[in-house]
Amino acid sequence: MPITAVRLDDSFWLPRLETNRQVTVRYDLEKCAQTGRLANFAKAAGRQPGDFKGTFFNDSDVYKVIEGASYTLAEHPDLQLEAQLDRLIDDIGAAQEKDGYLYTIRTIQPDRVQQACGKTRWSNLAHSHELYNVGHLYEAAVAYYQATGKRTLLDVAVRNADLIDRTFGPNKGQRIDVPGHEEIEIGLLRLYQATGEPRYLKLAQFFLEHRGRPAGRKRLYGPYHQDHMPVTEQTAAVGHAVRAVYLYIAMTRMARLTGTREGGNQKYAEAVKRLWRDVVTTKLYLTGGIGARRAGEAFGAAYELPNATAYNETCAAIGEGLWNQQMFLATGDAKYIDLLERILYNGFLSGISLEGNKFFYPNPLASDGKSPFNQGSCQRSPWFGCSCCPVNIVRFMPSIPGFIYATRAADLYVNLFVGGSGTMKLQGMPVKISQQTAYPWQGKITIRVDPTAAQTFALHLRIPGWAQGRPVPGDLYTYLNASTKPFTLRVNGKAVTPSLRHGYAILQRTWQAGDSVELDLPMPIRRVLANNRVQADRGRVALERGPLVYCVEGIDHQGRVSNLVLPDDASLTARRRPDLLGGITILEGRALKRPRPEVQKTEGQGKEEQGPGTGSNDPDQPAGRPVRLTAIPYYSWDHRGAGEMAVWLRREKLSRKGPEK
Ligand SMILES: [Zn+2]
After folding, report:
1. Is 297 an annotated catalytic residue?
2. Distance, CA 145 to ligand 1 centroid (Å)?
């Protein structure tokens, strides 16, 4: 659904979107001005003197803010913001070279570019981000055009895409190469959809086809760039996590756009399903985060999921969220929305402060409150030298309303539970759907269906995996007590037992204006265990309630959480705390405080926090001192000063007879 067809009226997401609109958009623009990112365009246009400032891919940050600002404009006209963007877009247009080339560093100082740029145009595509930058330009141009109807930035994008189309291709005199950082493929597909120009679709396909294929190219870049084998043959998610998911988004979009009509494209659909399975069953953090390794901002090996050193770049969570939305659109399967939901409420949302002006670049699942994991800080930072994450958040946050509903022929999907309404057409007939809910704090959702005239269609309500005793597909994570009180569903007050398919409860009937559906998803507190192959989580347990992953912070536990042990039989209760962290539901109970056994202090892949006997039922262990346990939603951590944090707590199994297995 287009974001303009959806109106939010809830107490969880609406405040975050409003903060994004009123604080983060302006804040990011201001930071782009302060750091010379905006001036680089004026300098390239010859409107301002001076050298290029910053890093060669900084142009992309500006495009991403324009994209995000455009989404907010689409819903909230703001003449002042629009005028500011118009001035900036005028500079961008003037910065573009005559033939369409746009890369401010080379235009400003062609003989003194940074090393990664390569001496001449396109000469170091593995690292120059020349094509990456303009991919974000195309996305921004489409967003700005759709929000305002103005073609100025779209014309800039088209001139640039036409240059790329003349430059790259299989014909004589053209280049065969691919970008080192995927993104232009997504931009081209969006530009194709906005303009109908089939050359852009073909060009996107060209870049996908030549990735991992040596024919006609000087060299392959290797697995860090997902350029080690043809994309349709890749089975494991490898390399730089953001690059990887941007590639998968493009492959999924390509499969959707072309269906089976061009032979090879069904192969994209099959490849992304394999890659998705690899991520979800071996490389996914409980928070939805991906990219375990700091080195190379990359995926780790299967089951390599360390907590304190988890990288989990905010951009990777965003890309993964967008990918899962595309996977849903391609398949109609709710499991992709389950993952999108996990990312939205946890691994993405942790990336930005409640106030909207501080950011995490990595999102670890444990912190000692001292190690500067966040580009030199152990807390959220106001900005980064490489500020991809803050400007990615600003475009992703206002995209969320578009994920709530979907339609296809005579099917209406309710994917996310967010108060508000959506207006759409089903088989040409207008239908309005509204939700009332206190989700994610409560699982009761009241839906009202209002077709303008009685209409027969199927309402698909997503029944989240967590409500069916399954945190994620596969066996990477499981609930300690899988049995769960079943959800209930009522239509106009009468209990119904719907058929369940692809993760949806399906209500097929003739709908009348004012029909109501009540879905009740029980939200018990769940204990989560990781697959035993995840070394960092062995002997540990995590807590979830509804779609939220919880964590514990030092401030609630006299400064220390690494010495907490949670017995399996310790009862836990949920309590609403409207006064805390913007209003949250905390989990409370009794835990034990017990000194940690020998800890191996090896910072690194998968070994940093496991010691012998950790959390096991070693009968020689001291019983520990009972303490009060308070857990808060993971997304809300680090708002009360620097301190320890942990998602995975040491676990004491019910039986003390001896270690299992
Ligand atoms: Zn980033």
Report:
1. yes
2. 25
